[in-house]
Amino acid sequence: MTTSFASALTAARDAAASQHYPQGALYVVATPIGNLADISLRALHVLQMVDCIACEDTRHTQGMLRSYGLERPGSQLLAVHQHNEAEAAQQVISRLQQGQRIAYVSDAGTPGVSDPGARLCAALQTVGLRSIPLPGASSVTSAISVAGAVTPTQGESGFMFAGFLPTKNAERLSAVQKLAGEPRCTVLLEAPHRIIELAQALALLGERPVTLAREITKQFEDIATMPASDLVAWLQATPQRVKGEFAIVLHPVAQEQGDGLPPEAERVLKLLLAELPTKAAVKLATEITGASRNTLYDRALELKREAEE
Question: The pTM is what?
Answer without folding.
Answer: 0.79
